Amino acid sequence: MKRIPKGEGQTGIAPKTKSIRAAFEKGMNVLFFLCGAVAVLFVLFISVYLIVSGIPAIREIGLADFLFGQVWKSTAKEPQFGILPFILTSVYGTAGAIVVGVPIGFLTAVYLSKAASPKIAAVIRTAVELLSGIPSVVYGLIGMTILVPAIRTAFGLSSGATLLAAIVVLAIMVLPYIISVSETALCAVPKEYEEGSLALGATEMETYFRVSVPAASSGIAAAVVLGVGRAIGEAMAVMMVAGNVANMPSLLESVRFLTTAVASEMSYSAGLQRQALFSIALVLFLFIMMINAVLAILLKKGKKS
Amino acid sequence: MEHKSLRRTVYDRTMRILIRVCAALTCLLLAFLIGYIFVNGIPNITWQLLSTEPSFRSDTIGILPNLVNTLVLILGTLLIVLPLGAGAAIYLTEYAQNRRVVAAIEFAAETLSGIPSILFGLVGMLFFTELLGWGGSIRAGIMTMVIMVLPTIIRTTQESLKSVPQSYREASLGLGSGKWHMIRTAVLPSSVDGIVTGYILAIGRILGESAALLFTAGSASILSSNLLQTINSSGGTLSVALYMYVSERGELEVGFAIAAILMFLALLLNLTAKVAGKKLKR
Hints:
The complex is a heterodimer of chains A (305) and B (282).
Chain A: H1 15-61, H2 63-68, E1 72-73, E2 80-81, H3 84-115, H4 118-133, H5 136-155, H6 163-187, H7 191-199, H8 204-215, H9 217-233, H10 236-241, H11 258-265, H12 271-304
Antiparallel strand pairs in A: 1-2
Helix pairs in contact in A: 1-12, 3-6, 3-9, 4-6, 5-6, 6-9, 7-8, 9-12, 11-12
Chain B: H1 6-41, H2 47-51, H3 64-95, H4 99-114, H5 117-131, H6 138-162, H7 166-174, H8 179-190, H9 192-208, H10 211-214, H11 227-232, H12 238-248, H13 252-280
């Protein structure tokens, strides 16, 4: 698209006002550039801050002891700072949420983008928007009052605040992201692909699952990765249902995630304990950056195809 | 009719049913969540809860301070992020010539939107409340929220600016207006629907945020006498108050009442966004 260079066609304007005008335009350009630069500054600022405050404790504890230590006793007389339980809990919890949430979300997205009538599609889309708009503390409250007691009675435990409860809550929380991103990818599949497949005698479902879904695969993969990012970063809802004890993860055991490890001790921590919390935040940040990188690659791939 | 093998017929039927079941499940889930919160929450919403401060003396709980804090936090954040986010989006779509700069800013915005809120809370706490010495205050909460919602604002504004036809710009420039005049009179008015929708989304995010605010704005429930004092002192929003009442004090009834209010506001925002999008579109 051609843009018309500014200032042309402005006949009859005295040179002085013209130069004032040019200076004004220049000023606006700089002003808007600064606004844009702020976003970059924020990211640099957060990254640098997390790295700088996260490194001292890792240095003092030792990288291997910190990452692979199985015991977290931050307030003991001889404190131990092993965060393997948190890392594994976050990984298992996220994996569980994805295993439960992705099939439901993916199939809903197929229905929404291919089979639903416009009216029904509008209803489902609104439902998905509303689900993503529910605050995480509300999910936590519902999990606390329904899931936790249900798990306690179902498995005869002393407390139902377990990894299982967290997985179910996280699965519900990632559902709207999975649905909306997969739907966008499925809707972008060219109509000709589907028409070709139907003309060749494939049934509708065969067409959707064997032609449309593979064609939208990178977009659907992006949906899953986005879900992973959301699940691993969730703090408050998980804090309310997972029991928050630093155990090695097991489905019916009270557990603590990377996010909740930071949140639960921050208010009263001091010294090395406090610095170790910053290091946990750094580990979480690195996880998120890896997930972001994968997401960016997938989205780029989806745009190309 | 063509002949279909049994296996293919079964596959087609099963998948047909399966996708409908999953879609129904999603809708039922939402209906259940809304119903459960409203049934448990609405009976606990009383005038006393809405209009008072918590009092130890009379042993009553009121969420008026939290309502005020939420409002101040949302308004304060929007006041700052509105020009900042719109400015960044205008730069990206209207001014930027260098593709590398655009790519860098877009990458930064994407990265920011992927960072979990607990990390915003941590950095906000370290920088605003400790390094700058603001203490746990609404002011620190506002600044943290600005960083957090900035990418949402940039993305939605950018999208609506991109949807403005190039011919509007050419016509405006052709009539002799300068670039800023063109943006102000031709581009912004025709993209206002998308911009407003973006701000409503941002309000929803702030309303539901808890992790990032707990460590920056704090969780106090005290009514201040004036606005300046409110901004400078610690204050919990509705979401933070829900967490505190439920997790720290076991006040489930109050929790449900706040949850019902939050849910109602979320529904209202969604509706407003839809109506605004339609009404403002021309």
